[in-house]
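Checklist before submission:
- one chain only
- standard amino acids only
- sequence pasted in full

Submission:
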Amino acid sequence: MANALPTITVPKDAPFREVIRRFAAEYRTTNSYWYVPKARSLNQANVAFLAEVIRVLIDEFSTVTWNPDQQNRLLDILEGRGLVSPYIEEGTADPNDRAALARIIIVVLKHLGLAWVDDGLTVLVTDAGLDLATVAADDLDRVITAQVFKIQYPNPTLDVGYRAMFRGLFPHVFLLQVLAQSDYRLTDEEYAIFVNLAQSQGDLNSVVQYIRAWRGLREADRAALMRDIRSFPRWRTISNARSYALAEFAYPPYLVRADGETRAADRATVDAIVSKADSLKSVAAKDAVDWFAYLGDPKQQPDWFTYLSRSITLAATGAAAKNAAAGIVEEAAKAGSPLTPEEKAGIARSLREREIEDFYTDRLNLLETGLTLVPGGRQYSTHIGPMDLLCKDATGQYVVVEIKADEARDAVFGQILRYMGWVHLNLPDGNNNVRGIILASGFPEQAKFSRMGLLRTDAETFLKFAQHAFQPVTTF
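Returned file contents:
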C-alpha cells in the first residue's frame, strides 16, 4: 500500500522486548507532538530582549492602533537601540523581510501572554507583560517561568485538529515529572521519541517505562530502532520543532540544557513542583482571546479554583453554572484538592452573579429603558477578561454592565473602567462612545467618592449605579 506506515522492527532477543513493542505500536498510531511556534527561542538574552520590546510598547504604542506603519516604527525604534538587525535575525525566511521579523516578535509576545498586538486593535500589554518590563534583570526568569508553567495542551490558539490530540497536558510540568523518574536527565533523542507521545498527564507512567526500557537496550538495538523511527513522516516534524519546544519547556533556571541533554540543576525545586502536579487542572477557554486573558493574568493559576471559576463564567446560564460547580467541587475533593472556605465563598459569589446576570439579561429595561445586548454580549470576550454584559443604549452608545453580588468595592471601579477603555480603543464605533453601569447590592459612601474621582460633570450618567435586590451568599 502506497500510504502504509513504516514498520518498527523489535529484535526478538532485545531486552524489554514487550515494552518496546508496546511503544512501537503506540508510535505508529500517534501523531501528537509538543508544538511551539518557530520564532525566537527562549533563552536569557531573548527574554531580556522581550522585556525591552514591552517597554517600548508601553512607552510608544500604549494607545496606538496597530498597522503595518506602526510595525515598521517599532522595528525602527528597536534598530535604533541596537536591539535588532533584520539581516541576521533568527527565524526570518528572507534576510530583507522586515515583516517576518516583526511577526516573529509578535508571535512570542502573544504565545507567552505578554502582549496582544494585532492589526486594527490597540496594543495591549498584560499584567504578566508589565511584570516582565518592570522587574529587575535578575528576576526576569521568574516571570517567564510562571508563563511557561501555565502553558497547556489543548488551548484555543492551536489548530482544531491539533487540539483534538490532547486531553489535558502541562508540558513543562510533565517534563519535570519525566525527569524526576528518569535519573533527572533526558536526552534530546528521548524527548523527541517518547515525551512527544504524551497527550495527557495520565501518560506519564507509560512514557517513563518506555524511556527506561530504551536505556536498557543494547546500543546496536537502539541504532536499528532509530533507523525505523526516522522513516516516519512525523519524525521530521518533531525534529524541526524540538529545539524550540525544549528551549521553552526546559527554560526555567532549575533545569539546564547541554550536550544534547536536559538535566535538573536544582532537584529540590523539581521535586517540589512535581509533588504538586496532581493539584493542576486544565482551564477552560472559549476562544483565543479568552485564553490570552487567562494567560496574561498572573493571579489566575491552573488550579481547581480557577478551573471552577472559569467554568462558571463560560456556562450558558446560572443554572448550568450551579450544576457544573457542584460536580467540580466534588471532583476536586476526590482528587485531593478540596476548595478552601475562602474559595467556596468566592464560588458562591460567582454563582450568585450569574444568577443576577440571567435575571437582568431578560429584563434589561429594569436597568435602563432602550438597553439591548450586543451580539455575544454576555461574558463578552476581551483580551483583559470577559465583560459581564456589553450592551447598547437607545442612542447607539455602548454600555458596559459589571455585576457584583455584594456591595460595590473600590476594585470594581478599576475593573469597569478598564473594560470601558477597551471598548473605547478597540471597537470600531466605540471611540468616546461608551459608558458603564455598576449593578451591586449596595453602594457605600466610598463608592460615591470613587465616582467623583472621574472629575466629570456627567459622572452620574457616565458611570451609573444600579442596586439589585438579590441577597448575598457566604458559601457554596
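Reviewer check: The mean pLDDT is 92.
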